[in-house]
Each structure stands twice: as structure tokens, then as C-alpha cells.
Amino acid sequence: MMAQYLEVKAQHPDALLFYRMGDFYELFFDDAVAAAAALDIALTKRGKHLDDDIPMCGVPHHAAEGYLLTLIRKGFRVAIAEQMETPEQARKRGHKSVVNRDVVRLVTPGTLTEDTLLDARRHNFLAAFAELRDEGALAWADISTGQIRVMPCTRTRLGPELARLAPRELLVTDTRAEAIRPVAEDMGTALTGLAPSSFDSQAAEARLCKLYKVQSLDGFGQFTRAERAALGALVDYLDLTQRGKLPLLQAPARDTAEELVQIDAATRRNLELTQSLSGTREGALLHAIDRTVTAAGARLLERRLASPSRRLDTIMERQAAVTFLHGNSRLRGDLRAALKEVPDLDRALSRLSLDRAGPRDLGAIRNAIAQALDIAALLDQQEGPPLMHNAAQALQGHDALLDLLDTALIAAPPLLARDGGFIAPSHDPDLDEARKLRDEGRSVIAQMQADYAQDTGITSLKIKHNNVLGYFIEVTATHAERMLSEPLSTRYIHRQTTANQVRFTTVDLSEMETRILNAGARALEIEKRLFVELRDAILARAAELAQTARALAEIDLAAGLADIAQAADWCAPKLDQTRSFSITGGRHPVVEAALAKTGDPFIANDCDLGAENTAAIWLLTGPNMAGKSTFLRQNAVIAILAQMGAWVPAKAAHIGLVSQVFSRVGASDDLARGRSTFMVEMVETAAILNQADDRALVILDEIGRGTATYDGLSIAWATLEHLHDVNRARALFATHYHEMSALAGRLEGVENATVTVKEWEGEVIFLHEVKRGAADRSYGVQVARLAGLPDTVIARAREVLSALEQGEAGTKPKALIDDLPLFSAARAPAPATPQTPPALEKLAQINPDELSPREALDLIYELRALAKR
Fold first, then answer.
1. Hey, what domains does the chain have and what are their CATH numbers?
2. Is the peptide bond prior to 487 cis by the omega test (within 30 degrees of 0)?
3. pLDDT value of position 815
4. What is the pTM of this model?
5. Is 608 helix (H, G, I), strand (E, B) or coil?
6. Any known ligand binding at 626?
7. Does the annotation place 651 within a ligand binding site?
8. Annotation-wise, does 622 bind a ligand?
9. 288 appears as a binding residue in the annotation
10. 279 labelled ligand-binding
11. Do the annotations mark residue 628 as ligand-binding?
């Protein structure tokens, strides 16, 4: 056995080998050591190899999926070796023959299909990146849903595209793996190197034609050599990992960068589109706006949010569907109630194609089709926009398949086909008979006994059973002569004579005995055959069912977006090809939802970056914590929501299509690459200035804050000028350098705006309102006080700030700083403890619960008098 294990393991040296041993998967040698540590299970030993103990650990077969998920999340690949024959079959080849085993599947991060291993509401993409001379391409597929797409992609664009798709695994040629590894690791993507032959474009075309059973790929579109290579590598890897059982892949579709809003990885992180900065869904925009009720709808929402469109006709078609359901609350409610009952059709189809499905998947497809017909009937009651009309059409046409599944399956099928019991009574006569024999063997034999007693005229005739003869007919010796005489002797065959009894059998009884003994196994075999027939009937309509699944997701997404639009008071944005960007009463949906939990209102704000010939950049000043970053982010989020086809959190919005969204809001050290916070900030800013075009939307926050004051100011100044003169982008530029507000008078397209605050008795109150104009100070000392800095530090900071501000009029900064008694803080006496105002002292001594109305009124007059002192 160990020789067989080593032989199989040699074929998969880079994977942990799950070696099937009866009811367990066992691991040996280094695999066992690694798995035991990763899974926190006992490490034991089994036998010896080269005089050394063999480390061994194991996991139960029925619970293997949970262990697989843990190993995959920890970066392992797993090869599953199953028993390819029974022990009885092995013994026929010889007494000491070992049961044949072989790897039936390689489990990797990008090739999972089981519901227990996947997040139902997120895609699990496997991607492949191909480079051929001067062209590159990225292909990706989710084998759990059958989606497969490809796009041109240079190595420079690889990082942003990986950030958009978030694939679990990336395939590259092993010769380029190390060069691409940093990009993959940045995105948390597992990297797998393949032989260059997997990316051969000619072999790839043949591979794809064979998969789709076509002579040419022209029917799917025009693909470049690099695109064919990337698609071919995906198929080759799936063939390897699935051991020849390829998933049900839809026809490959081609994306282009020109059709999508370009959003780089840093911007996605900063805006927290699909996950928060802490890496969770909670706190992300996706979590805040997700009102979908199906898994497929949730996956579509994530795709749309990650990939907003630049095609005006596409956007308006999606928006029209949301608007239609927003205005039809009753229909929307009925649709959402019906959609809640829709199973995950895509993933059930995928498991069927990979032969990993069970009866429950058949039931899921039946239920999905039935719900689809109900939803189509709801939509047919009203004339909807094209997207809704086309979706309703795609939900229909499965009547024959539904009738078949309805009559063949019980209401709630079991998980596994091997358990049987999922085919409904009366669907198959042979199955009904086998079940009757299995479940009612005694009554069948009793009926035969009654028939034989009537046939022979011997009322005392009995049918009995023992382990030697099986079933037999028994009569007393007095009746034996009749049984042995003509004509009964031709039908009743003598078996045995005892002292007082004579035993017979018949051909029918012998056959019935065999059938009863085999009835259970026969019933299971019939059900397995029927399962295959039902599976094949479903797969024959896989393309149509995939369209139905897409239509259900579209309806769910539109209904979910309409639901949040109505509940949160959003508006339908106006979109066109101008350079307008006008938002009235804009809000940030994530912050607004968080404030709602505490009962605090969100302060809405306007933003107008102007039409064709007016200001395109707002220079936003104001103190820290006043809400500048939220204002910047909310406008970028509104643009993204609008171009994914949703309504937006505002009273009104007019947006000229945005080609790119860039954000540099906040930064941190990148210790792994030896980058300081300032270096990270500069790298991100450089990427924006080098890429942004005149249709881009740019939000920049606190450029230059990570270095010396005058260095930072000069960098921020030059950056704003470059955005205005060279990029000519629409931008929101927040800064704590209020000196930059002078640029509004020098640059035609720059306008000042500020976040308002109010001072009261030395305190600063944040109003979170954005208005035209510039701030004349940063209120940094006041914010420091709110943060809890010691009073001595605050007092000293005020002293230094006052000296610096007084010196600005005529004193050179260097001389001013030299003259400041910067080391006098240690010698300066601590400021006197602030005196509590008399009115407050008096108020602190009062117990309101003990005051009568007259006493309370007198107290107010007394406090007023004290306050005037």
C-alpha cells in the first residue's frame, strides 16, 4: 500500500495528498506533519519506511470539506485520491492485491465548487495572465457559475484588474511567476505557475474549439493571440485539476478597458467599495447598499459595483429598470418575495456538469424554474422597460423540463444520490416494484401463499424461509401425493422431505426470492440511473437555464437597488456626455447608515464642479475632523453608483460620464517594500498625475502632509496646478494648507470651498457643512484639545502658533523660528488651573429633582446675574 501511496504522491509533489482509506482520508510523511499543524489534529505514525517511523494523520471522509476549506485558506493545494474499486474487486486480482487508487481532483483556491467551501454571495474567480511579445491578456472564470471572460491587459494594468476582480488564484507561465508574484501577493491572490505549453495560443485555440464543440472561435468574437492563450491556459488547468471533468463554461465574452470606469487598487481600498480597510464586508459600500435576496443577485451587484460602465446606453437601460421598480412598490414587493425562494441555479448547474451534484441540486433547479415562471407571470402584468421585458422572456420556456422534474422528484430530495429515496412514487414502474419488494416483501409472499393455496386446494399450504433453502412451499405429508402428481408436479418442484413435512418450490417463487433479496440494491441502481437521466435532461438545456439564472439576478439587483433608493430617499441621476458634475444634497451611504444607528443626522452637501466652461476643481479647506474626507469620498461614490446604473444618495445629480476615478485619501507605511507613509502618498499621487484624463474624477486629500511644511506646501501647490493645466480633470482637492486658497484667483478652473466650523468659548464645533469660500485657519490646536492632549501642551502650542502667525507679516520664517523660545516650555510655569465660572459652580450644587417650579425660576435669575459678572 505504501508503495502505491508514494507512486501517487510523486505525481503531485506540490499538493497535500488526501489518500482514501475506507471512511478516512489519510496523509503520510511530510504531508501529515504539515496538515496536522494546519488543522490542529493529532499526528501519529503508521509502520516504517527505510527503518523510520511514518508520520500519519487523517480526517473523516464525511467531514472532509471543512478540513479542505481550512487548508485552502492557509495556502495549500490538495490532491484527492479515491478508491477506484471495491476491496472485493481487488481480491479477485489476487489475495494480497491493493485496492486501486487514483487522484480524481486537485483542490485549489480558484477551483472550488462546493457550497460549504464558497461564499454564496461572492464570485470565486480563477484568472490566467498571458504575455506574448508586445501584447497581454487576462482571462478569468468562476467554475461554480460557469462565467468566463477575457480582456486585453498589459502587465501595468494587471494590478488594477486583479483589484477589480479579486481572483482567488492567478495562473502565469512559470518563467514569469517570480516577476508577477509581488502584484499577486498585493491583491491576496494565490499564484500558480504553469508550463509555457499551457499558454501556447495555437494549442489553446484547439483546446477551446474542442470544449465548445465548434470548428472556429469566430462565433464568439475576435480574440487576440494573447486572449486565446489566456483562455486556453484556464481550460488546460481546469482539465488538469478536474481530471477531465470540465465544468459547464458559458461562451467566452470579451471585455475592453474602454467600456469600464478605470479604478486602481489604491482607489478601491480608499473608497472601501467591496470591503472595508480592515478587510471585512461590514463597513464597505457593498454591504451598505446590498438589498439583494438571492446569491446570484448579490454576486451581480458586486460585479457591477467593481466595474461601473462607461456606455451611456447600458447605464440608462439599467437605471430604467430601477426606476420602473421604484415606481411600482407592490410589484417590487411581490418580486422580492418570490425571489427569496429562488435557489442558486448557476452553482447547481455547475455541480451537475462536474458530477458533484446530488438530488438536492435537481430539486434546486426544479424550484428555480418554478419560481422563474411565477416571476415571469408577475412581470407580464405590466409593460416594463427593455431590461425587465427581456428578463421576463428569459425566465420562460422550461415547461417540459419542469414537468419532468416535478413528476420525477419528491418535494424535499436528500443530499446524496447514494441514499436513494429521491424519486417520486409512480414515476418509474420498475422502481415502484423494487421498492414494494424491498419494503413489503412479507405481504408479497403472503399473497403468493394465498394464490398457491387456491391453486392446489391445500388450505394448510405455507411459504416459509430458512438460511439453507431460502423461500420454500411447505405442506404436510398427507398432501404430498397430490403435489407430486399431475398436473401440480409440473409447476411445483420437490425440494426436501422431512419426517412430517414435504417442501417444494416454483420458478416464480425462486425468481421472487432473488428479486426480494436484491430489491434494495436494485432500487438504488434504478434511482442512480434515473438521476443520470434527469441530470442529462437538465444539461441539455444548460444554455437556456444559464440565461434564466442571469435574468433572475438582473431582476433581483434592480429590485434591490429600487428598494434602497426608496427607503433611503435616493434620486435618479441625470447622465450625459458633458463634463458636468453637479450634486445637490449628496450623502455618503455608509456614514449615513452608521450615524442612523446612533440617531445622529447626516449633513448633506452640494458639489458643483461646473459645466464646460466653469470651475472643474474645488479646493477644499477646513480643519481636520470637519468632514472633508467624507465629502470627497461621497462624491466619488455617487459617480460610481450612477455609472453602475443605480440611483444615488442625493436630492439631485447631473453627472457627465466619468472615465476614471482616482482617490488618494489617507495613507500608511508599506514596511514590506521599505516605503514610508510619505513615499506611499507620493507613489499614489504620481500614478494619478500620470494617468488621469480630462474625463476623470480625482479626489485628493492632504497632499504633502508627510514631509516638512514648506516641502509639503510646494508639492501640493504643484500637484494642483498639474491637475488644472495638464490633466484638466474634474477634482476635489482637500488640504490643510489654507495658503493654497490664493490659487483660486490665479487658475480659472479652481474654486475655493470650505467645511464650516463655529468657535464658542475657545471650543470648535464642527458643522460638517461645505460652502463656497476659503478657511483662514486650520484649527489644529482646537482639534488637539478635543483629542485630549494635556493642558500644558495645548497652552504651549497656542503660544508658538501666535508667534508664528505674528511673524508671517514681516519676519522671515527662519529668523522667526530662531527667535522663538522653543525650549522655554520646560522652564515656563504651568498655566494656572482654569477658574470655573461662578454660574457653573452654582449649577453644579443644584439637584433639579428637589426644585419646585418657583425655585427653578428664581435659580434662572440668579444664574443670569452670576453670568454677567
1. 2-107 (3.40.1170.10), 122-255 (3.30.420.110), 290-398+541-567 (1.10.1420.10), 429-529 (1.10.1420.10), 574-776 (3.40.50.300), 789-826 (no CATH), 838-867 (no CATH)
2. yes
3. 47
4. 0.84
5. strand
6. yes
7. no
8. yes
9. no
10. no
11. yes
